[in-house]
Design brief:
Number of strands: 0
Radius of gyration: 17 Å
Helix content: over 70%
Number of domains: 1
Distance between the termini: 28 Å
Shape: globular
Amino acid sequence: MLSASLLVLVGAFAGGLASGLTGFGTGMTALPIWLVGLTPALASPLVVICSLIGQFQTLPAIWHAIEWRRCLPFIAGGLAGVPFGAYLLPYISINAFRIAIGILLIVYCGLALAGTVRLRVNAGDGAADGLVGFGGGILGGLSGLSGPLPTIWAGLRGWGKDERRAILQAYTTAVLCFAFVAQCFAGIITTEVGWLVLVALPGTVLGSWIGRRAYNRLDNAKFEKAVLTVLFVSGLLLLAGGIAPLL
């Protein structure tokens, strides 16, 4: 029991650190750690609740930068995409899905970090943002990975760190609240999950606090590298998690 509790605490700290630093990434960082000792039925709602804790902890500091007119297309698209992704879940191999997304993140972020890729998208409006949000919602419904697609899109658009974080946090928080309500109605939030949340709480809060403090010290270029690094590591974890059951 002690080892399981330590695993939950370590995963919570890693997820909180990623979320506090970049505004997303709790699930991508913590889930591979938690799945070592927890079943998906316990790890999935734990991701949602700890992600919300981290988001609500850091949201007040970025609230001033949120422009709801710009966030709404992402949010509307994301909320529409989540149930569609959940519908596709029985028809898609999750391992193959994780491998594909992992390879995509590794290749794109690896090239971007190396300076090989310098793409910028200047065209596009609210409809394009809504479509990206919808794609992120589908990925969220499939495996809880709602963040990578809007994050990459924000980077391609060349948005500054406060602008990017404000949009991503508003989007992520809305999608997570929707997921939490859905899980409550589905009976997934159990007493055992509640106890795991209490174990994870100190790690989530401390990690989010440290990550947020680090965020304040980053300029736009360093923030871009931090986001790409989180996505790159997440890609490695996704690839490893997809391959492991096949070995």
